Amino acid sequence: MEKNPLSIQESEQIAQYFQEYKDQKFVMGTYKDLKKIGEARNEKFQHLKGGINGKTEFTVRHHVGTQANNRHFIAHDIHPDAGVSILIPKIWHESFVHTANNYKFNNLREALFWSIRDLRNCALRISDPVLQNEVRQDLNTALLEVIRLNKVHFSEYFQKNLTK
Tens-of-pLDDT digits for all 164 residues of the chain? Predict the structure, then answer.
């Protein structure tokens, strides 16, 4: 498998994004809390030829553990604004961070850690080794916070096995 199948343009855009947000590459919180921050980032990057792959959004809110698994383990009718999320480049969201939706997990903790694995693999797609290392370190720090937030907001579901 090729290490970085991104086009040169996409690689440059992702590098520009992470350089712009050097001190705050990843923002975590509830899906609702991140809406305005994500919109501001998208507006700032509209000059990037319509964003990644011609889309106007460049930043997207991603439910860590995935929204599908949140519905499965926390509540069948979970609101889209529930769950812990992280802002990531949209190109990562389109193809690389939802493999957890394809597996059956026993509890939220398992789904969360699979989702974290997917996010960590996204850093491998950055071609500049210095930036890749910097993004990986910041992402690891952010993901530790995501785990903490999940434990705070969904502690009763963190170890609970599915009994359906």
Answer: 344 466 787 788 888 889 889 999 999 998 888 989 998 988 887 766 554 555 567 888 888 876 677 667 666 556 666 778 899 988 888 777 888 778 878 777 888 888 899 999 999 888 899 999 999 999 999 999 998 988 887 777 766 665 44
Residues whose CB falls within 8 Å of the CB of residue 87, separated by 6 or more in sequence, listed in order? 26, 27, 28, 34, 37, 38, 41, 59, 60, 61, 62
pTM: 0.82
How far are the Cα atoms of 15, 99, 114 from residue 94, in angstroms, in the given order?
A: 18, 11, 17
Bridge partner list, 28: 86
CA angle 55, 59, 63 (to 5 degrees): 115
Taking the C-alpha atoms of residue 23 and residue 39, their distance in angstroms, rounded to an integer, is 18
